[in-house]
Amino acid sequence: MKPLAPPSIAPPFARYSHGVEVPAGWRMVRTSGQLGLSGDGTVPAGTRAQADICFANIAAILAEAGMGPQDVCHVSAYVTDRSHMAPYMAARDAFLAGRDVLPSSTLMIVSGFTRPEFTVEVEVWAAAP
C-alpha cells in the first residue's frame, strides 16, 4: 500500500493518511461495523474498553481471511460524543502500532446506536496480496 499525502493540503492532524493506494489484484476485506459487545454479550462501561473490543473483533475477522492490522487500508469510526474521541483514538493507535503506512480514516459523531450503552462503532477495509 502507498500513502497519499498531497503537499497542497494540510497534513493529517492525527495518526492516519489522507489516502491509501491499494495495488491492483490485491484481495479486499470489508468488515461490518463492530460494537463493544464482548463474546459473552456484555458491554463494558467506557469507550476505551468498548473500542478495544471493536478492534479485537476486527482482528478476528481479518485473521479469518489471513490478514491482520497491518493490512488495514481504511478505518471508519463513529462515537456518540466528542468526549469519546480520545479513548477511541488511543485504542485505534494501539491497534495500528508499529505500522509504516497508516490507513486513511474517518471519525464521526453520531446521535446513537441500537442500544444506549454503546459509545463507539468501528469498521475497516483491509487489503493484502
Short description:
This protein has 129 residues and is α+β, with helices and mostly antiparallel strands. The chain has helices at residues 47-64, 85-95; strands at residues 2-4, 19-21, 27-30, 34-35, 72-79, 104-109, 120-128.
Describe the secondary-structure layout.
Layout: E1 2-4, E2 19-21, E3 27-30, E4 34-35, H1 47-64, E5 72-79, H2 85-95, E6 104-109, E7 120-128
Parallel strand pairs: 5-6
Antiparallel strand pairs: 1-2, 3-7, 4-7, 5-7
Helix pairs in contact: 1-2
Protein name: Enamine deaminase RidA
InterPro entries: RutC-like_sf, YjgF/YER057c/UK114
Describe the protein's architecture and organization:
With 129 residues, the chain is α+β, with helices and mostly antiparallel strands. Strands 3, 4, 5, 6 and 7 form a five-stranded mixed sheet that branches. 22% of the residues lie in helices and 27% in strands. It has two helices and seven strands, in the order E-E-E-E-H-E-H-E-E. The relative contact order is 0.28. The chain has one domain: 60s Ribosomal Protein L30, Chain: A, CATH 3.30.1330. Helix 1 packs parallel to helix 2. It is globular, with a radius of gyration of 15 Å. InterPro entries: RutC-like_sf, YjgF/YER057c/UK114. It holds the Pfam family Ribonuc_L-PSP.
Which characteristics define this entry?
single chain, 129 residues, alpha+beta, 60s Ribosomal Protein L30, Chain: A, 5-stranded mixed sheet, two-stranded antiparallel ribbon, 2 helices, 7 strands, globular, RutC-like_sf
